[in-house]
Specification:
The structure is a single chain. The protein is α+β, with helices and mostly antiparallel strands and 129 residues long. 63% of the residues lie in helices and 12% in strands.
């Protein structure tokens, strides 16, 4: 399945029509129609009831659109999580320290840091220098 075709179909379904879907995606309406038709060919059944004046999804269209919504929601969540990881709002921070600093200073600092950044796992390695 071509995810670009799925995204176009999902935009059409969300916007309630081919023209509005095309406008949202900033592509031509014939390009949208072509991509939806190619997706229908891949699926092997119609996704849109073209006999209606207003956009009406077929049962297959409703089903596929519900999956498309979940797919693109997960895509957004993955992008957000990766951005958080890149911005050190999530992930793992490894710190090495000598025995004295590791025992007397870092536990307090780690506690403060953990309160500010609860989604970052801290890993402390204490060793003699």
């Amino acid at each position: 399945m071509n995810l670009n075709h799925l995204a176009v179909f999902h935009a059409v379904a969300q916007e309630g029509g081919f023209s509005r879907g095309a406008e949202r995606l900033r592509i031509t309406q014939p390009a949208v129609s072509k991509q939806v038709r190619e997706l229908e060919n891949w699926v092997g059944m119609p996704l849109v009831d073209r006999s209606q004046k207003r956009l009406a999804l077929t049962q297959a269209g409703e089903l596929l659109d519900s999956y498309a919504h979940r797919i693109f929601t997960l895509e957004s969540e993955a992008e957000r999580a990766l951005n958080e990881l890149q911005g050190l709002r999530r992930g793992r921070l490894a710190v090495g320290a000598s025995t004295t600093i590791g025992i007397y200073l870092l536990p307090t600092l780690f506690g403060l840091y953990r309160n500010l950044h609860p989604d970052i796992d801290l890993d402390l390695e204490i060793g003699n220098t």
